[in-house]
Design brief:
mainly alpha
Length: 104
């Protein structure tokens, strides 16, 4: 993850795009790109895998840039969130269910 973050950040710095990357703008970009990813699945279950991969990469890139801008480790925040979610959704109560944690 660290190597990927360095590559994404360096790519941006080489192009002097960091000047446009406030946390607010990066959050907006994540949302915009997530919308484009969702559009790949808009009308049916058929999708172009190459297009999906490109849109997913855009979302991941902006997430990495936002984490870097905020000074947080993407790997660590995902692991922290998984630990918190595991407490809300214990396997014995949530396995195979989509029920919200407060209704388990």
């Amino acid at each position: 993850m660290e190597e990927l973050t360095k590559k994404v950040v360096e790519f941006t710095r080489e192009r002097d795009w960091d000047q446009f990357h406030s946390p607010e703008n990066l959050a907006k970009s994540i949302s915009i790109e997530a919308g484009e990813l969702l559009e790949c699945f808009q009308w049916n279950n058929e999708y172009d895998l190459d297009e999906v991969k490109e849109e997913l990469a855009d979302v991941i890139n902006y997430c990495i840039l936002l984490a870097d801008k905020l000074g947080v480790d993407p790997k660590q925040i995902v692991l922290d969130k998984m630990e918190k979610t595991a407490k809300k959704y214990p396997v014995d109560k949530s396995k195979g269910k989509s029920t919200k944690y407060n209704k388990l």
